[in-house]
Amino acid sequence: MGAQGGVEYSEDVPDKNSSHQRHNDIRHRAEPRANRLPLLQQGGFSNTIRRSRNQFLYVVPPLVAAYWLMEWANERNHYLNCKAGRALFEQEG
């Protein structure tokens, strides 16, 4: 047992005396006080929410403006290519 009270597991490759197999000794240590969910316990999730909230005003307004501009352009294009829009420009020209 280790100094921290962990449990050691040893795994050996079978048939150690075979010439084509190399002896591997793999040791795993399971600490009883291991931090299993470090991101949740150290505030990783809340930091992600905070950072996303801080970036909201930099991302959302340009996207809304671009959406509004595209809607306006599509409506204007539809009007200019319909019968009423063509008639308006024929009278002017």
UniProtKB/TrEMBL annotation:
It comes from the Eukaryota. Residues 1-38 are annotated as: Disordered. Residues 13-34 have a biased composition (Basic and acidic residues). It is a single-pass membrane protein. GO terms for cellular component: mitochondrial inner membrane; respiratory chain complex III. GO terms for biological process: mitochondrial electron transport, ubiquinol to cytochrome c. InterPro entries: Cyt_bc1_su8, Cyt_bc1_su8_sf. Its main location: mitochondrion. Keywords: Electron transport, Membrane, Mitochondrion, Mitochondrion inner membrane, Respiratory chain, Transmembrane, Transmembrane helix, Transport. Component of the ubiquinol-cytochrome c oxidoreductase, a multisubunit transmembrane complex that is part of the mitochondrial electron transport chain which drives oxidative phosphorylation. The complex plays an important role in the uptake of multiple carbon sources present in different host niches. Belongs to the UQCRQ/QCR8 family. PANTHER family: CYTOCHROME B-C1 COMPLEX SUBUNIT 8, UBIQUINOL-CYTOCHROME C REDUCTASE COMPLEX UBIQUINONE-BINDING PROTEIN QP-C. This is Cytochrome b-c1 complex subunit 8. It comes from Zymoseptoria tritici ST99CH_1A5.
